Structures are given as C-alpha cells and as structure tokens.
C-alpha cells in the first residue's frame, strides 16, 4: 500500500479490493469504494482523521464531501446481531439492527465500525443497496444471510448482487479463543493457526480468525458470484495512520463511518 503526494496533488493509497484511501489537498480524507462504481450506487468511509462517533462529526465529514445538510441519514443502533431492516423503518429513533437497506436515492445509509467490517451489497437491476455492520458476533448471528434475504424479498436475484467488504481487523491481529473459532469452522479459510498472528498473544488456546474470509464464504454460500465479491486487505489494527481500530484504541475509542446510497 503506497501512495505519495506529488506537490499539490491528492494522496491515494490502495487498500485492496477496490478500496482507495483519498486525501485531498485540503487535508480532508475518505475511503472510496471504487469496486461498486457502475452499479448505480456509491460507497465511502471516513478515515483516521475523523472520529465519526458523534452525529455532528458525521455531518461535518459528509459536508466536506458535498453531501447536503438536509441529506436523509438512515442509521441503526448497532447491537452486534443479525437483524437487517429497511431504511423506511426509521421513525426518528434508530432501530436495533446491524444492517439497513434502501432503494430510495434520498437515503444515506450509515454504519460505524472500528475492526468490524462494513459490507456493501448492491442490486443494480433494482437500484437497491444494503449496508451491513459485520463483526464476528453479527456474522455468526446471520447478518450476511439476512441482508441477502432482505434484498431478495425486495426483488433481487442473488446472482446479480455485487458485494464489497471494507477494511477490518485482519487475521494477523485477530486472536480468538475456541469458543469463537468453533462458530466459523465451516467457513473456508476463516480459522487459522496462531502462527499467523503478529500481535502479542493474550491466551494459550488462541487462534487467528480471518473475518473477511468468513464473510466472503457466507456471501458465496448465499448465492453471490465470486467474481462480484471484493474485499479490502488492509488491517484496521495495523494501519494507525489510516484507520481506527477497537483492539488498538480500546472501548470508547474513535469510529469510522461507512455510508452507502443509490444514485437517482
């Protein structure tokens, strides 16, 4: 991952899977989901320059990227579960869920993350998008499956879907115990030997968990084509200069915002 500014030029850094860190010459930065370009949807994330934990910080970041003040934000109260709701269920209070979907171009879907993976799933023929907060608890609770079911109920054919898995904690830094790894034994490539870990180990029975591999396996099992799945390979814990990480910063630390919308 390299990208050096040249004079007054923007800085770009490839995060893998079509995710590109972009810092403008004015210092404002975002991560662009270029892999869903051409699907009728857009996806972006804030980066380490912003703590998007608060609504005001989120609004300021959106304004920097030309989203209007009146943009209709649709977020959920993330509970690390499997529930996915339509944006139309928003009634002023964010519903308890970890995924949200819409086909209304007036909606800006928002989830927040710092080690968990944001996942964009787009249905181009029906101009519909789902945005999912996918940590190990949510993935094991079926949040990916429920997102696919929601889009299918809204008219999608699963073979038409495009998915993008955003930056998340990598197998280099994600140590879990057998009580967690047991939930992912059927997910190809998800559970690895502790020798993959580059961090100081916390437990003797710990192993490496590849969250991205688990998500990708569940997308494939759910009928999404492998050629329409892209995944960032930048580890949130490893890249302090670009990304926020719960396991690096601890409880109450800064968060990144992931947004998704369909174009008019």
Describe, in plain words, how this protein is organized in 3D.
It is built from six helices and 16 strands. The protein is α+β, with helices and mostly antiparallel strands and 264 residues long. The protein has a single domain, classed as 4-Layer Sandwich (CNF1/YfiH-like putative cysteine hydrolases). It has a seven-stranded mixed beta sheet with strand order 1-2-3-4-16-8-5, with no helix packed on it. The longest helix has 11 residues, at 143-153. The protein starts with 10 loop residues before the first strand and ends with a strand.
- Count of helical stretches: 6
Low-pLDDT regions: none
Largest sheet: 7 strands, mixed
In what order do the strands lie side by side in the largest sheet?
Answer: 1-2-3-4-16-8-5
Q: Looking at this structure, what is the CATH superfamily?
A: CNF1/YfiH-like putative cysteine hydrolases
Q: What is the total number of structural domains?
A: 1
The rough form would be described as: globular
Give the tally of β-strands. 16
Helix-strand string:
EEEEHEEEEEEHHEEHEEHEHE
C-alpha Rg (nearest Å): 17 Å
Percent in strands: 25-35%
Draw up the topology in text:
Layout: E1 11-14, E2 19-23, E3 29-33, E4 41-45, H1 55-64, E5 72-75, E6 84-86, E7 99-102, E8 107-113, E9 117-123, E10 128-134, H2 136-140, H3 143-153, E11 162-165, E12 175-176, H4 178-181, E13 191-192, E14 207-209, H5 211-221, E15 229-231, H6 246-249, E16 256-262
Parallel strand pairs: 5-8, 6-7, 11-15
Antiparallel strand pairs: 1-2, 2-3, 3-4, 4-16, 7-10, 8-16, 9-10, 9-11, 12-14, 13-14
């Amino acid at each position: 991952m390299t990208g050096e500014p040249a004079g007054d030029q923007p800085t770009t850094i490839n995060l893998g899977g079509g995710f590109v860190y972009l810092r403008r010459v004015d210092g404002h930065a975002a991560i662009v989901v270029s892999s869903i370009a051409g699907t009728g949807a857009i996806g972006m994330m804030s980066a380490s320059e912003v703590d998007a934990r608060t609504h005001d910080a989120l609004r300021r970041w959106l304004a920097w990227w030309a989203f209007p003040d009146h943009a209709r934000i649709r977020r959920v109260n993330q509970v690390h579960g499997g529930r996915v709701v339509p944006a139309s269920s928003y009634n002023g209070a964010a519903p308890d869920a970890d995924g949200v979907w819409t086909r209304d171009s007036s909606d800006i879907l928002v989830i927040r993350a710092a080690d968990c993976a944001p996942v964009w799933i787009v249905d181009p023929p029906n101009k519909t998008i789902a945005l999912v907060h996918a940590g190990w608890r949510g993935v094991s609770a079926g949040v990916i499956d429920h997102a696919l079911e929601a889009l299918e109920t809204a008219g999608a054919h699963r073979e038409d879907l495009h998915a993008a898995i955003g930056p998340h904690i990598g197998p280099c830094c994600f140590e879990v115990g057998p009580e967690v790894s047991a939930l992912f034994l059927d997910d190809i490539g998800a559970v690895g030997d502790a020798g993959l870990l580059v961090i100081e180990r916390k437990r003797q029975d710990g192993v490496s968990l590849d969250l991205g591999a688990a998500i990708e396996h569940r997308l494939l099992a759910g009928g999404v084509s492998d050629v329409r799945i892209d995944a960032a390979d930048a580890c949130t814990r490893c890249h302090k200069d670009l990304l926020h990480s719960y396991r690096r910063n601890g409880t109450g630390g800064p968060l990144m915002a992931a947004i998704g919308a369909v174009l008019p």
